[in-house]
């Protein structure tokens, strides 16, 4: 049995992962979030739920004990949160981290879409970049995700790019990001040290079609 801790479990991508995890007998899941009521509409009966802020080190440490994989689905002061996560994982000797950031943190988005993306969200990206930098500098077995613009479509299609490749595509369904995360939870040896751009195939353009 593999123990999985989902931090920021009320997040929109995490909610899809929780739905995928239902009925999975090989993963023992703990959900860590600030307000458990936010999951009231999901079936979490086989899962442990812990209420806490990610910056509450004592509470996070308690939830971290015995975990094999941490999947962080956070937003806000990403560098502050990543620091707490990495330190707590180190202290509890938990190695495997899956951490969701954003496209654009390396200015890796080419062309007109790259310019548009920089104008739209460039100002918000520095904490995401700092979070990725400190995770890469850790000795954790990490996979950093950089999804394209997120949609709530019922769609599982994704393609990936590596850290050194130009980003492809403009958008992706949260459900498809969750499907990729499930491949990591089911095979934790996959994409260790990876820094993965995620988008829906065939969505190249000057901006996401829905914008
Ligand atoms: N929107 C886009 O097009 C786009 C594109 C690429 C990447 N991204 C990024 O991808 C990530 C995941 O996306 P998403 O849609 O799943 O995000 P989301 O729904 O906004 O989820 C983020 C979660 O972080 C939690 N959180 C924030 N601060 C916390 C804290 N101090 N302690 C515990 N939990 C905390 C929030 O919990 P509460 O419920 O307690 O607030 C929320 O559930 C985000 O960082 C997002 O910015 C977004």
From TrEMBL:
Domain named NAD(P)-binding is located at 8-188
The record's annotation in Gene3D superfamilies points to: NAD(P)-binding Rossmann-like Domain
Per its UniProt record, what InterPro entries does this chain match? NAD(P)-bd_dom, NAD(P)-bd_dom_sf
One Pfam family of this chain: NAD_binding_10
Q: Report which superkingdom the organism of origin falls in.
A: Bacteria
- Signal sequence, start to end: none
SUPFAM superfamilies associated with the record: NAD(P)-binding Rossmann-fold domains
Q: What is this protein called?
A: SDR family oxidoreductase
Q: Which organism is it from?
A: Paracoccus aurantiacus
């Amino acid at each position: 049995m593999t123990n999985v801790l989902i931090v920021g479990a009320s997040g929109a991508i995490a909610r899809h992962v929780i739905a995928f995890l239902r009925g999975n007998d090989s993963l023992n899941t703990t959900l860590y979030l600030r307000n458990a009521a936010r999951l009231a509409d999901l079936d979490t009966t086989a899962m442990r739920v812990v209420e806490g802020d990610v910056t509450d080190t004592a509470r996070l440490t308690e939830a971290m004990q015995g975990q094999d994989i941490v999947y962080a689905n956070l937003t806000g002061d990403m560098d502050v949160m990543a620091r707490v996560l990495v330190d707590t994982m180190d202290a509890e000797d938990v190695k495997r981290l899956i951490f969701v950031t954003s496209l654009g943190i390396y200015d890796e988005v080419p062309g007109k879409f790259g310019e548009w993306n920089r104008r739209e969200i460039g100002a918000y990206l520095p904490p995401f970049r700092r979070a990725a930098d400190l995770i890469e500098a850790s000795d954790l077995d990490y996979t950093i995700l950089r999804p394209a613009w997120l949609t709530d479509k019922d769609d599982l299609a994704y393609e990936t790019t590596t850290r050194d490749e130009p980003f492809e595509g403009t958008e992706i369904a949260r459900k498809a990001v969750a499907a990729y995360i499930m491949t990591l939870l089911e095979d934790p040896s996959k994409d260790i040290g990876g820094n993965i751009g995620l988008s829906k195939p065939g969505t190249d353009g000057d901006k996401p079609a829905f914008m």
